[in-house]
Amino acid sequence: MPRRIPEELFAIREMTIDDLAAVFHLGEELFTSDYSSSMYRTWDEYEITTLYNSDNELCVVCERDGEIAGFALGTTVEKQHSSWKYGYLVWIGIRPDLQKLGAGDKLFNEIKQRMVEQGVRMMIVDTDADNEAGIGFFRKQGFDSIQQHVYMTLNLSRARRKRRKG
Ligand SMILES: CC(C)(COP(=O)(O)OP(=O)(O)OC[C@H]1O[C@@H](n2cnc3c(N)ncnc32)[C@H](O)[C@@H]1OP(=O)(O)O)[C@@H](O)C(=O)NCCC(=O)NCCS
User: Fold this and answer.
1) pTM for this one?
2) Where are the domains of the chain?
3) Whose Cα sits closest to atom 23 in ligand 1?
4) Is 7-165 a domain of CATH 3.40.630.30?
């Protein structure tokens, strides 16, 4: 039986500038090249600083015993010719030793509520097709109609080498 931590022991609050380093390092631990072998989604310091600067109300953290246990970073998107406002949950991550204890649920509900307050009508998430935990988690939150997305690469250094030889 997994250890169950009462969910009230996870405190949710808005991310502050003092959290940036801890969130960044936790993201480095979670979003490694194993997490996403493609370069499609890359975790770096600009991800957090950009989201924090543009949508700090949609940057929330979860604490356990005064330490960062997880985070959820989102933004809103408005499309031309559409009255719908979309809420894009860009990153959500929980410390590996505290996963599967309900912290992700709590963070997700907080960011969803904040998006509703901002007039969001549709939430969007994306992740690698083989991220079972992520997909299982999003399904549990009610996401459906998974759409496949094709990601392609073109190695330009090979073409350059050929040109040099020719
Ligand atoms: C995805 C993630 C945020 C879930 O956080 P969590 O705190 O472990 O999730 P919770 O404990 O709140 O779980 C809620 C539900 O999600 C689903 N879920 C969670 N972990 C799962 C897993 N490993 N496999 C399948 N489903 C899972 C379950 O349905 C669970 O409900 P249950 O406990 O009643 O079975 C966490 O696994 C994580 O940080 N993963 C690495 C980063 C990542 O992939 N982020 C998503 C893309 S940005």
Assistant:
1) 0.90
2) 7-165
3) 133
4) yes
